[in-house]
Specification:
Layout (H helix, E strand, L loop, with lengths): L2 H8 L19 H4 L2 H5 L6 E12 L3 E11 L2 H25 L16 H13 L3 E8 L9 H12 L6 H11 L2 E4 H7 L6 H8 L7 H11 E3 L13 H8 L1 H13 L3 E5 L2 E7 L3 H16 L12 E6 L2 E4 L18 E3 L2 E3 L4 E3 L1 H23 L7 H7 L5 E3 L2 E3 L2 H12 L12 H9 L2
Parallel strand pairs: 1-4
Antiparallel strand pairs: 1-2, 3-7, 3-8, 4-5, 6-7, 8-9, 10-11, 11-12, 13-14
Helix pairs in contact: 4-11, 6-11, 12-13
Length: 441
Amino acid sequence: MELEEWKESKGCDLKNYAHFDKRVSINDRWSYISNPKKISQHSFYPFIHYKQNFNKFNKLKGKKTKERDICYSAHIDRCIYQYYSFLINEEYNKRVIQDGINNVAVAYRNELGKNNIHFAKEMFDFIKAGYCRDIIIGDFTDFFDTLNHKYLKERLCDLLKVKELKGDYYAVYKNITKYSKWELKELLSLNGLKDTVKDKRELNKKYKVISFTVFKRLKKSSCCKNTCDYGIPQGSAISAALSNVYMLEFDKKITDYIEQNNGKYMRYSDDFIIVLPHKESEEFKKHYDFIFEAIGKIPNLKLQADKTQVYNYENGELWDQNLETGSGNEKTNPEKVSLSYLGFTFDGSEITIRDKTISKYYYRLYRKIKATVKQIESGKKVSCKKIYLKYSEKGAYVKEGRHIGNFITYVDRAKKDFGQKEPIDRGTKNHMYKIKKHLNK
């Protein structure tokens, strides 16, 4: 992507949240953020940090609440991170083409012109193209939180073809690794607000979260700095680009090995999938050992044991494999298994939207309907239009040349891309009936 094209797409972007500085866009401060000398001397603000609760859904176990650390940067810092992310991605894109791994790391890669639907279909098509396949799916533990700073810097220098980072790049690198954070709860309290959704909205209506005078007075006592030699904040405008740089050597090594053995490797952020022609136990063990030795050579890169799965695909059926040897389960077991990748489930013959994703959709839908019905019963005049826009096929429309949609329109796109024979929409076919039924209860 050319710089001017990138500026046109990102330049006017203003964020609604309040921070320590005023709201600015890239275009507002272009002469500043594009000046290396200014950036090398820039004083970055602390991130604002809070823990977000989110629900994970399981058909058998139901809802499970987990916590995720969220850090968001000041407005001028976000603009700087976005610009340097663009610069790094430009070099990264050249490198992966040169290394023959352009279609390996697929997360955060807008220039590929594809999305999760295309990537999942690509892998499932590759599996089905062979009569018998071995499949390994893995998930790296606390990926962003454990990235080793020294190794990240080495990989960044290698990508930029320099022995030491230039002043501006070093300033960005130093702040994203030795970042400081200020708790959102304290900022709410300083404004006489509580840790509620309503009060967070009130805080974000402000020009700044606190005045510069208060900021200077409390910064030292209120900020917590990352003193570890690992970890970057997940969600910053540059974190995704740096995580891909971190994995460059690993992606190249695994791709070369897997392709030499007529297989396919794909990584989406901290999730990866490897597909190989089926081999007997001893040969599979060699592949397995090579992959996990390669993982062990990258600082702090570790797999989540409970999320590492090995399957055997044979003639339209999917079976569990022994993780250590690759030997499949006895085919006398009548229960087939299925694998999940990028939000889709594949059982060897059919592809559907993952059950957890469907459960999450209905959980949120019914919760919204319940709240709306309560308001109606209390005598308030409430429109159901928002429910239909957010949770039904009526949510598809065009705004300023952009196609706006929701989960149901996403399912429709997946159905179109995977083909009408796949029961992609099995879990959402009757969503309109269910919405009307629950509204009329």
